[in-house]
Amino acid sequence: MKIDLQQIGRKIRQARLSIKKTQQQVADQCGISKSMLSKIENGQTASAVATLSKISDALEVPLSWVLDNRPETDLVLQAKSDRQYRVDDNNSMGYSYELLARPRFANIEPTIVHVTPMDSNYRNEPYTHSQDEFIYILEGSIYLFYDGERHLMEKGDTAYFKGTKPHLFMPVDNEGAEVLTMFMNQVNDSL
């Protein structure tokens, strides 16, 4: 079951209106066009998780809240059979995402990133987001492009990096890959 783009759009609009920001203000803060934000809010386009993360940051809401509509609780249990939510890549992002849990009480968002096979259309421009990222290769292999360098990562390999540096997962072959990803809000270093 795919995440409902209309639902994502409604939640983004709701959050934007609750903090009394215009589409232009949020778009400028996220580095996207007002037209793109309008299309996202109207459920007319899928967006990269990096873009949704920037929008979530601008609206001061968790990305997990934008992606999931279940009630918030202190305990988050999720059976594998219920973990069907994915953001469809529409053959343009090169990834689809599976949210593993939506812990409102933590600054971490566990996700499985499904990297499409090499022969599929995929995004080839690095991107950034505000969260730190930890990855663990569950299946297959990827090239992690990070801050201008390419790193081969195979099953069992891990990496931790700043999302503010340009990065991208690229398939190594036509098998694709699955990557456990933990998006983490940065901790204030001054504490």
From TrEMBL:
Where's the HTH cro/C1-type domain? 12-66
Q: Name one Pfam family in it.
A: HTH_3
What are the record keywords, sorted?
DNA-binding
According to the lineage, what is the superkingdom? Bacteria
Under the heading PROSITE patterns, the entry gives:
HTH_CROC1
Instruction: Report the InterPro entries cross-referenced here.
Output: Cro/C1-type_HTH, Cupin_2, Lambda_DNA-bd_dom_sf, RmlC-like_jellyroll, RmlC_Cupin_sf, TransReg_Diox_bact_type
Known SUPFAM superfamilies for this protein? lambda repressor-like DNA-binding domains, RmlC-like cupins
Name used for this protein in its record: XRE family transcriptional regulator
